[in-house]
Design a protein that fits this description.
The chain is an all-alpha fold and 123 residues long. The protein has two domains: 62 residues; 61 residues, no CATH class. The protein has four helices and no strands. α1 runs antiparallel to α2 and α3 crosses α4. The longest helix has 27 residues. The N and C termini lie far apart (59 Å). 6% of the residues are buried.
Length: 123
């Protein structure tokens, strides 16, 4: 008999139960957002850990970072794009302000990195 980390059936049951609780936590979020925060954190944490353990048992020789990083990047960039779209639709002036701040930050970052990219020693 293996360790608890290798018991795939246990992790699948935990994943299914926490998934059901996570759905109810999202429904609670609609009704009472403040009361839902602890439930969301707890249920989604268990859901993520158990899902990761199932994946790790099924793929023992693959790198989680190399496999999951592109998918996480895609989800996060889509989420940011969706939030940005809703924000611009609600108040278009926000887009102008965010764009201006973004350009200023990129210019400052470029100025900060310019001596390093030119091969100079930064004091």
């Amino acid at each position: 008999m293996g360790s608890v980390a290798d018991l795939r059936g246990l992790w699948v049951v935990l994943f299914l139960l926490s998934g059901l609780a996570a759905v109810f936590a999202v429904l609670l979020l609609i009704l009472d957002p403040l009361a839902a925060i602890p439930w969301l954190v707890a249920t989604w944490s268990v859901l993520l850990v158990s899902g990761y353990r199932i994946w790790r048992i099924d793929h023992p020789h693959e790198s989680a970072r190399g496999t999951l990083a592109p998918r996480v990047y895609l989800v996060l960039s889509s989420l940011v794009a969706g939030i940005g779209l809703f924000t611009v639709r609600a108040n278009p002036i926000v887009f102008v302000v965010v764009l201006a701040v973004w350009l200023v930050l990129m210019a400052l970052l470029g100025l900060a990195l310019w001596p390093v990219s030119r091969g100079r020693k930064v004091d």
